[in-house]
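Q: Give me the 3D complex with adenosine monophosphate.
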Amino acid sequence: MRVLMIAPPGAGKGTQGALIAVHFGIPHISTGELLRDHVARRTGLGLAVQAYLDRGELVPDQVVLDMLRGAMVAAKAAGGGFVLDGIPRNMHQARAAYLIGRELQMTADVALHLQADDAELMRRLLARAALEHRSDDTPEIIAQRLALYREVTSPIMSWYRDRGILVSVDAMRSAQQVGREILAALEAMRPFLDLVPEQARLPVDLTGLGDAFGATDPAVDPSG
Ligand code: AMP
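A: Here is the predicted complex, encoded as structure tokens.
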């Protein structure tokens, strides 16, 4: 099972990602967790990205794409499944993640969208702030992260919808209810995923993403 999640901060990516990972026995790849771990250990990378996290801004794409590649190679060695949490976050990352997946023959089976409104997300994140003391869980930074999600992350959904792999769930309910619905949907899809080889799935035309995606590299033929 290969799943990527598209969800605003506070929608439950971490919780649901962990649930999916345990249920299917696959690695949970969270770019936010990996970055926070670097910051906590004060590695060179951690020192370089800390200000981005503190401001609620995206770190440079290449940083997270390098992390993604390493984690995907490890996931392949571990059986080929994964659940991505926090990446892709914009059109460029979506395209790059797809190309890494093509190269490793492990593109996503499902793009799982967790839907929730901003008022509920703000409420949850402020509640979490009281418990976890994350540097980016202040009201101003939360508002910035939610705006960034609406502006640059949420538009990538149309691409996954066109590919026929988008699954949207209502994440306004309890974590337990949402988790049950996600696992039921993924289990229902599992036999189909095993039967239909990757080459036989819907073709993907990267140019369909429009201007926001940037110019398509002519050296890469996504249909090939
Ligand atoms: P998260 O735990 O997914 O909410 O991510 C926390 C923070 O880590 C974000 O606000 C960004 O600063 C950074 N981050 C995580 N994933 C990415 C990504 N794919 N691209 C850029 N920045 C990211």
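A quick observation: The chain has nine helices and five strands.
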